[in-house]
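Long-time lurker. I teach an intro course on protein structure, and each term I like to show students one example going from raw sequence to a predicted 3D structure in token notation. This year I'd like something fresh instead of my usual example. Would anyone be willing to generate the tokens for the chain below so I can use it in lecture? Attribution to the forum is fine with me.
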Amino acid sequence: MTLYPIETGNFKLDGGAMFGVVPKVIWNRTNPADSNNMIDMAARCLLIEDGKRLILIDTGMGNKQSEKFFGYYYQWGNHTLDGSLSKLGFHRDDITDVFMTHLHFDHCGGSIQWNKDRTGYEPAFKNAKFWTNEAHWQWATVPNMREKASFLKENLLPMQESGQLSFIKKDEGAYLSNSELGFGILFVDGHTDKQMLPHISYKGKTLVFAADLVPTAGHIPVPYVMGYDTRPLMSMKEKHLFMNDAVANDYFLFLEHDAHSEVCSLKNTAKGVRLDQTHTFNEIFN
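-- Reply from a regular --
Happy to contribute to a lecture. Here you go:
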């Protein structure tokens, strides 16, 4: 098995929305805001090369939305999904599996693209299965009012219409569910229903794709949850359990949304679990 970070693009979001009730004077120390109160964000994905399988975890925003849509997110930098794959010698047609932690547009938008005539949409990975879970699919395709703007039908329905959609099953009663993709999955419900966090054993270490449970290194303290979370008290409970498990088992966290840090480690302190160090991916796994 070989793992590769995949940068799909950078954007900005309102810092207050990203940190909920945490005061700006605190979160601005770790995630400094610009004059519009926007903080730097990444859409960092992970590629797993394992035998004949080439698995992509999340796909970023994609590029099919309107100029007005992207205008809200202040995209910056030169990273693209195709560019990142090409640097590694891969093409999107090589991808056999696309695993989506959840179906918010910034995590799955790159899974679907315009068709050749721009008259409709089609899967961006023609040879891949698209993996979610049945409960989250139902949650996303019949969305609540809070998340309706994040679950876009053009990102979702073409997966089903193409016949490429598959569902991961949750192992009820188990902390981690097994998957046929070769890694364990932690299901969490605070941010959105049945978000899935891969736990990957690699080179004698465990790497956890932290997705939106811990979007940046600045979100490590348990009360630092996003204003986007649908069930913030549940997010805090899930983070508390996860953070203590991560310290006890020396997990490294792969940070999907941290524009400046790819991976971090954790430590216990008198105030609870806190950041130990940030790292580049290659510092830990090369």
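Some talking points for your students: The chain has a mean pLDDT of 96. The first helix runs from residue 15 to 19.
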